[in-house]
Design a protein that fits this description.
This protein has 281 residues and is an alpha/beta fold. 30% of the residues lie in helices and 27% in strands.
Length: 281
């Protein structure tokens, strides 16, 4: 049995239901990508699976127990989440913000140990920002700031890492750096990675398992071969996609796509970025 799964999960805000009766399994020691159009429930699902927000009914099960039974520090030692638009305390240095990832392991007065400092320095090095350790986070570019947050998640040293659009604000080169870093954490350390991605080709290239959502429900969950498929993308994004093969790894890729028009020959009103296959530098 997998370590992490949901059972008939319902999530919403007030009377508005976002995710309904959702049951999924997250493969252990794999990279899982969640795709879907804007507003389909991807971020809401991540927040509920990490107890950032409560779910209405159903359950999120980790190691055979509901996550609602785990204390805060205990859960934070098992899973970390990088939200879509994280905000920190103004005036912090890069090193100080990354050190927050060590909170679940602190005792007493919360002083950092030698191990804490070693892990912090490792996270800074892994994300390529060791030279920024004493710089103010407020003075950084969007891309640099994003890497600081990823370093904080790495410093938490959890076996499971959730990331909501981790390549936000990054140019193409830094997007690949981040995704390759996450891939290395998975391949070399066996960490389970769960991330929301808008770029379909990034999902196809880096994920072992893809969950495609529409209106809070699963359209298809499976390998990249099963999900990066003409009919699946048509259902999820209302696009007519041409699926080819990446010449570098032979994985499926979305070569190009067009919006599907209705019977009045009017394109469906859907922003192109929900099915983007590339990001501007």
């Amino acid at each position: 049995m997998v370590r992490l799964y949901t059972d008939k999960l319902h999530i919403g805000y007030g009377e508005r239901l976002i995710v309904e009766d959702l049951t999924i399994e997250i493969p252990d020691h794999s990279i899982t990508a969640i795709i879907g159009s804007n507003g389909c429930g991807k971020s809401t699902l991540l927040k509920a699976m990490t107890r950032v927000i409560p779910h209405l009914s159903g359950a999120v099960i980790l190691d055979g127990e509901s996550i609602t039974k785990e204390n805060t520090k205990g859960l934070a030692q098992k899973m970390a989440i990088l939200p879509q638009s994280p905000e920190g305390t103004p005036g912090l240095t890069v090193g100080e913000l990354v050190s927050y990832g060590r909170f679940p392991y602190q005792k007493g007065f919360g002083r950092l140990t030698k191990k804490d400092h070693d892990v912090i320095n490792w996270a800074l090095e892994k994300t390529g920002i060791e030279d920024l350790k004493y710089h103010s986070v407020d003075a950084l570019s969007g891309g640099q700031r994003q890497r600081v947050w990823i370093a904080m998640a790495l410093a938490q040293e959890t076996e499971i890492i959730f990331l909501d659009e981790p390549t936000t604000y990054l140019d193409m080169a830094h997007q690949l750096e981040v995704l390759e870093l996450l891939e290395s954490l998975n391949k070399e350390q066996g960490r389970t990675i769960v991330m929301v991605l808008h770029d379909l080709n990034h999902a196809a290239r880096f994920a072992d398992y893809i969950i495609a959502l529409k209106a809070g429900q699963i359209v298809k969950a499976g390998t990249n071969e099963e999900v990066i498929d003409h009919e699946v993308l048509k259902e999820v994004f209302q696009i007519d996609a041409l699926i080819g093969r990446d010449p570098h790894n032979n994985k499926p890729m979305c070569v190009t796509y067009n919006l599907i028009k209705n019977e009045n020959n009017i394109e469906n009103e859907m922003p192109l970025e929900v099915a983007t296959t590339g990001t501007e530098a």
